[in-house]
Amino acid sequence: AKAQCFYEAMQPEFKKYIDNVIINAKALADTLNEEGFKIVSNTTDNHLLMVDVNSSVNITGKDAEEILEKINITCNKNMIPYDKLPANITSGIRLGSAAMTTRGLTKEDFIEIGKIISLALKNIDTIDNLRKRVKNITGKYPLYKEIN
Fold it and tell me: 10-residue block means of pLDDT along the chain (148 residues)?
């Protein structure tokens, strides 16, 4: 299994995939930053980013996780450095780009997702409308194709 994994990681397609994972994570981080959210490390150089939602929009990580779940965006509440809230509440959320990049989402899709996250957490738009926007993006990249 390890040999197969290393073989696949050496393929040019894998390098392109990993490059896209990082491009997409940066696009998401930059968009959220432009929308007024504090990214814990200011940006990212890997597939993950931490967002301080408490200082950005005055909600907890737990609340942010629940709001985003309602519009079919999965994230994890996460403690941030010097977090004053308990571990079961948190001040931050953790977002990643690998799974959606695997589905085929692009930098432009991640920019749109960043805007949707911002709207949801700022309560500017309705949950139903945002859920439809998320479904519109993910509908372009199905998890599997039906075989007749």
Answer: 93 94 97 97 92 97 96 96 96 96 96 96 82 91 78
What is the C-alpha separation between 122 and 120, in angstroms, rounded?
6
Place of tokens 């309602």: 70
Which neighbouring-strand residues pair with 122?
none
Answer yes or no: are the C-beta atoms of 75 and 64 closer than 8 Å.
Answer: yes
Amino acid in position 77: K
Going from the C-alpha of 60 to that of each of 43, 45, 46, 129, the distances in angstroms are 21, 25, 24, 23
**pTM of this prediction exceeds 0.85:** yes
* Both tokens assigned to 119: 């709207």
